[in-house]
Amino acid sequence: MLKFLIRRLLQGILVVWGVITVMFILRAVSPGDPAVLMAGEGADDEIIQRVREAEGLDEPLLSQYLDYLGSILVGDFGFSWEARSEVTAIVIRRIPATIELAVAATVVALVIAVPLGVISGTRRNEPADYGATLFSLLGISTPNFWLGLMLILVLGVWYGIPYPSIGTSSFSTGSFVVEYPSSIGLGLFDFPTGRREIGFTAAVSAVLFEQSLSELGAWLRHITLPALTLGTYFTALITRLTRSGMIDELGKPYVTSMEAKGLPRILILYKHTLRNTMIPIITVIGLQIGTLAGGAVITETVFNWPGLGLRLIDALNDRDWPVIQGIVIFIAVGFVVINIVVDALYNYLDPQVSES
Amino acid sequence: MTEDILKISDLSTRFFTSEGQVNAVERISLNVGEGEVFGIVGESGSGKSVTALSIVDLVESPGQITSGSIEYRNAELADALEADYPDAVDGEFVDVLSVPESVRRSLRGPSFSMIFQDPESSFNPSVTVGEQIAEAVEVQRRARADPRSTRARTQGVEYSLSGYLTSALLPSKRFVTTESKERAIELLEMVGIPDPVKRAEEYPHQYSGGMLQRAMIAQALAGEPDVLIADEPTTALDVTIQAQVLDILSELQREVGMTILLITHDLGVVARMCDRVGVMYAGEIVEQGTLADIFEENVHPYTAGLLGSVPVLDDVGGRLRPIEGNVPSLLDSEMGGGCYFADRCPKAMEECLRKPRTFDGPGSDDHVSMCYLADHPYEEGEALSDEHFESTGGDDR
Amino acid sequence: MISDRVRSNLRQSFSESLLPKIGLGILVVIVVMTLFAPLLATHDPTDTGHFDPETGSEYPPLGHSYETEVAVDGEFTEVTIESNSTHVLGTNTVGQDVYSRLIYGARVSVIVGLSATLLALLIGVPIGLLAGYYGGRVDDGLMRVADTMLAFPALVLALALIGVFGERPVGIPDPIVMAGFAEGMPATIPIPGTVTIVGALVIWVWFARVARGEAMSLRNAEYVKAARSFGTSHAQILLKHILPNSMTPIIVLATIQVAVIILLEASLAYLGFSGTTLSWGYEIERGQDYLRRRPWVSIFPGIGIMLAVISVNLLGDWFRDALDPNVDQSERGA
């Protein structure tokens, strides 16, 4: 097990190195002189030249590359050209919102998908099964930005379900507020968005120390629609996989053998077949974390959710390469780490793999 | 002759497939005495496994038991069910086909238990063997602890999803208790698994085939069943291991006084283990009786053919004579009205085109056969001509 | 390449299940929209300014009306905007015909989806086949590259690549308009060129991986060994034996990837990185600021994307079930 982890970790490091290299190359071949962008508008040639020298941009590419690698090793992703602050700080400030959203979406997906898949797989060709199949087909085929807008439209506008509008949610100690103009509505309408004004940790600490549930309620109201939007593709995919996995597992002889020894159906379903179904699904979830990250970029844009994805779009619009590089590398590292964890989990759950 | 524990009469099980109705088990009747080993023997596809699954109510869709009764003697159960299901109870006997599914479920374990042909696929590969056996112990333990045993066990009172989830999260609320784990280890020891404490913690893939078959026997014994149904228990094993497994079965049978319904295609196993035997062909029991009746006094040409197709070691000169042709398809639309064996039978007569009934055999009182020959001599003059086979399409398929 | 067995499998699962029929039905509609867009559209999709003449407001879809406030002499009065019979699905926020843009949007999605997948096939399959067939260093190198590529979320990689290449549309001349069959329709339509290339660069790895796996298992097949013993060259073996026999899973994968690309194109257009405005994804973005009062602007293009992706997914499922039950769900990518 330890040997496996070390091997997997080395592979992961190799991949991360590859990602850093690709990002460096992309920046190097991208049009535009970084020194000009860095110096800012209206800078004269002398200043640009000084910036170029100070940043080492006049050195050969290889030494720039080695410099870049070296500074990343100590956690320094450089300086944003546009925001005039450290990329590392920008990334760290944006991480919690994205992780909250991703975890909430995964929780939504698992909570809905697994029971749905089990029902669908154990009641084949009944109405519940057709419903679940249709849902999963729609779920994997709907673009999530459109889904997000439709959720806002149907729930917020047509049915008027109370949903936080801009600036109305109160916040207190430790809350995390990012000032962002709403892209939806342009101020013309009082438009509901899922803008995050209260961090999960702040909400939890309010519950613990102030015995106040309102913060948690506000947090839940904020995160529900974005989590549903981001989680739908995942939900649909896991429903599909759970369904076919359950059908496979239930056809196996050990199920008959367990029936014969008198085990209650629910124990067979949940302790044995579902567990065996989930083992391969965990790997798929790991591989699909990339999709989740891509979806997060879109979802954050739709709901103005101040995470890494929204920041990435801003950086792209500004051609702010250090930030683009920092965020993309961070997402890739996250993906690699999650997959190592998933592999370890798979190992732990499937005795036949850990044996060999 | 002991008292019967199981009386099956007119049992039919059919599969309603897209190709048509398949009569897997066709109006079979048999009685199994308490403490005896009853063998059901036949070629593959003769319906013997479906018979076994019918008894434990595990026939899978599109299969369905369509008629008949399976009466099981259990005075306690009969008392408990008398008030609610008077039709199902007859003295000490309960017709398990007339009680609701929940009651039938509750019989699995303490009344009927089953071991299967392929031990490797009959265990969940990702749970330890000890845990799987302990589960079987635990189910019965909990059922006994509850006074309304049959109900509690069957309606899943204790096994709600939330109950399961808490048991997964909190070690102290695990479904399987330490007592059951200990009992599982005892059971493993009973079936001759060396170092059972360590073995209990191992996964099925760490066991050899023979060991796993023993573990399956241990699992089946966990509920202390009255009737153990063994479906081809040795087929998947090496010959030397087969003998060991059979030894364990007969030892247990002697010690515990358990009734065994042994399903096999292997007449060697039958000769070694069984007190009485039923021979199945095309979903019917064509002949049944004591071991001696079947081996010495058989009248059905199929039984004779089956015996003839077994190589006998001390008869070196004797030739192996396989039965010509194949087991017929059991599709209802393709089954004729006469004896199903007629088109392969060397002694088929005109009479065999009519549906045969059961005749008393020449052997013991129990000996019965579904062959006209049991009551009549073979007359060459009435033999079916070859033309008949061609015209009815009763050729080799 | 397509054997009788495959054909009969396809036919059987088609007749047994309703879903492939639905998928094929939607696909036919979308292909017709793509091919005959200039004939089906009622207006030039790029023509702006189709507003209600009195208030300057967008038309709602047929059979609908909505209320809006208009300033008259410095005072706001509420007026009802009725639909206009020439604009079946209404007009958008710059006064373009929503129906015509829906039709033309199919064209963009289909062209990008097919050409990016084709490009990815052309890049990925040869590389994968060579790596799988020769093994060794080439193969190791490919697998490292593949691992690295897969560590990027598809959309994030696409965005980074667009950061490099910019957003360039390519004008494609429309033969129907050139031949004079459709007066007043645009003679060329802009296809997001960089998005096509970027899409291919994002998904080629999946093709390389599948092709590699096939080549690895086929290189030890008896008939390949036999061919080698006759002195057949490596190139011929690859072309005559390995390529045709690895096509089945590649076709299944390609079908699914068309859906992935359609979604990717829509996402990039929505985010404003596709370089063209004639796209379903862009239309949704355009409508979102006015979602409350003019929801049709966003609703219809979204339905367009969804139906296109559903039809391709259903087709992919049909192919997979009929041809190759072994292509894993995890290979879907995205």
Structure notes:
The complex is a heterotrimer of chains A (356), B (397) and C (334). Chain A has 356 residues and is an all-alpha fold. The radius of gyration of chain A is 24 Å and the shape is globular. Chain A contains 14 helices and no strands. Helix content of chain A is 74%, strand content 0%. Chain A has a domain at 90-163 and 220-355: MetI-like (MetI-like fold, Orthogonal Bundle). Helix content of chain B is 33%, strand content 20%. Chain B has 14 helices and 13 strands. In chain B, strand 5 and strand 6 (93-95) form a beta hairpin. In chain B, helix 4 (129-145) packs parallel to helix 9. Chain B is globular. With 334 residues, chain C is mainly alpha-helical. Chain C folds into 2 domains: 4-50 and 88-332, Orthogonal Bundle (MetI-like fold); 54-86, no CATH class. In chain C, helix 4 (98-134) packs across helix 11 (247-271), helix 8 (193-218) crosses helix 10 (234-245) and helix 12 (280-288) packs antiparallel against helix 13 (296-323). Chains A and C meet through helix 1, helix 6, helix 7, helix 9 and helix 11 of A and helix 5, helix 6, helix 11, helix 12 and helix 13 of C.
String of helices and strands of chain B: EEEHEHEEHEHHHHHHEHEHEEHHEEH
The fraction of residues in strands of chain C falls at 5-15%
What's the CATH first level of the largest domain in chain C? Mainly Alpha
Biggest β-sheet description of chain C? 2 strands, antiparallel
Which secondary structure elements does this structure contain, and how are they paired or packed?
The complex is a heterotrimer of chains A (356), B (397) and C (334).
Chain A: H1 2-29, H2 34-39, H3 45-54, H4 61-73, H5 87-122, H6 127-141, H7 144-158, H8 200-210, H9 214-250, H10 253-260, H11 265-303, H12 308-318, H13 321-349, H14 351-355
Helix pairs in contact in A: 1-4, 1-13, 5-6, 5-9, 5-11, 5-13, 6-9, 7-9, 7-11, 8-9, 9-11, 11-12, 11-13, 12-13
Chain B: E1 4-17, E2 20-33, E3 37-41, H1 48-55, E4 63-73, H2 75-82, E5 89-90, E6 93-95, H3 101-107, E7 112-115, H4 129-145, H5 149-154, H6 161-169, H7 178-190, H8 196-200, H9 209-221, E8 227-231, H10 239-256, E9 259-264, H11 267-273, E10 276-281, E11 284-290, H12 291-296, H13 301-308, E12 359-360, E13 368-369, H14 386-392
Parallel strand pairs in B: 3-9, 3-10, 7-8, 8-9
Antiparallel strand pairs in B: 1-2, 1-4, 4-6, 5-6, 10-11, 11-13, 12-13
Chain C: H1 4-16, H2 19-35, H3 37-40, E1 65-72, E2 75-82, H4 98-134, H5 136-151, H6 154-165, E3 169-173, H7 175-178, E4 188-192, H8 193-218, H9 222-229, H10 234-245, H11 247-271, H12 280-288, H13 296-323
Antiparallel strand pairs in C: 1-2, 3-4
Helix pairs in contact in C: 1-13, 2-4, 2-13, 4-5, 4-8, 4-11, 4-13, 5-8, 6-8, 8-10, 8-11, 9-10, 11-12, 11-13, 12-13
